[in-house]
Amino acid sequence: MSSNEIATRDEQQAVATTEQQPPQPTNELMAWVESARQANIVAQSLAKTDFAGAYRGKPDEITAAILTGQELGLKPMTALKSIDVIQGQPALRAHAMRAIVLHQGHEIELVESDDTHCVMRGRRKGAETWQTVVWDIPRARLMGLLNKDQWKKQPKSMLVARATGELCRLIASDALHGLPYAAEETDGYVHGEIAPAKAPLSVAALTAPAPQPAAETTTEPAYTVARDDKANDGVWDADAAEGSTDWPEPAQPPQ
Q: For residue 28, what pLDDT is reported?
């Protein structure tokens, strides 16, 4: 057999072998799909346990939390305890936000904290200048936060959470990967649980004119003098006329 025939046969075998082999995941999207499949397998088991917390019985939400945590550098169980869904939007809890930023090498310090104010400072990795954030009760009152349940129960923790969210966005927004707000900053936060979303307003409800109060109308009873044709045979009822205060006094002739 000539060398040309051998080369041709080898090429044909190589093409046949390539056609028989299924395509392998060679890009990031395919790798992510495989990660999602594996995360869902784990989620199916976790959803049946108390460790799932607010995600119990919700394997799809657990899968999403695991994948989101993976992008943030969180392990699956840590992600379940660090990511809440508030009003349909995922959000990191303040302690998890600080942990992620610190893990990236940035610095955060709690300077002062009590029930009336919180001072926190931080700086980006390699930077020399510190950024300072102050949250106090007057600022919370200005934003209409003090009437919320958690602000009444634990103002100190809520002030720290607000300062954390603002500071982390200021020095390391890139470390948060699309989750820039702490769960405690999101309206509807209740003990880290998944709060039900509020019903959206319809366009008709937003554009409808305000209802006008109904005008009060009072009608005075009309005074009538009836004729009793059957009793008096067409003659006015003299007793009724004389006893009525609506009749004017008869004019008296001059003396």
A: 82
How large is the angle between the packed helices 94-103 and 155-172, nearest 10 degrees? 30
**Which residues lie closer than 8 Å to 63 by C-beta, 6 or more apart?**
36, 39, 40, 43
pLDDT in tens, 127-181: 999 999 999 999 999 999 999 999 999 999 999 999 999 999 999 999 998 888 8
**CA torsion sign, 46 to 49 to 53 to 55?**
positive
Residue 60: how many other CB atoms lie within 10 Å:
12
Task: Please indicate, yes or no, whether the overall pTM of this predicted structure exceeds 0.90.
Answer: no
pLDDT in tens, 42-90: 999 999 999 998 899 999 999 999 999 999 999 999 999 999 988 778 8
Determine the Cα–Cα distance for residues 192 and 186; give it in Å rounded to an integer.
Answer: 11
Residue by residue, what is the 3-state secondary structure of 73-140? CCCHHHHHCCEEEECCEEEECHHHHHHHHHHCCCEEEEEEECCCEEEEEEECCCCCCCEEEEEEHHHH
Any idea what DSSP says for residue 16? H
The Cα–Cα gap between 191 and 166 comes to 20
- Cα gap 240→161, rounded to integer Å: 84
Question: 132, 119 in Cβ contact below 8 A?
Answer: yes
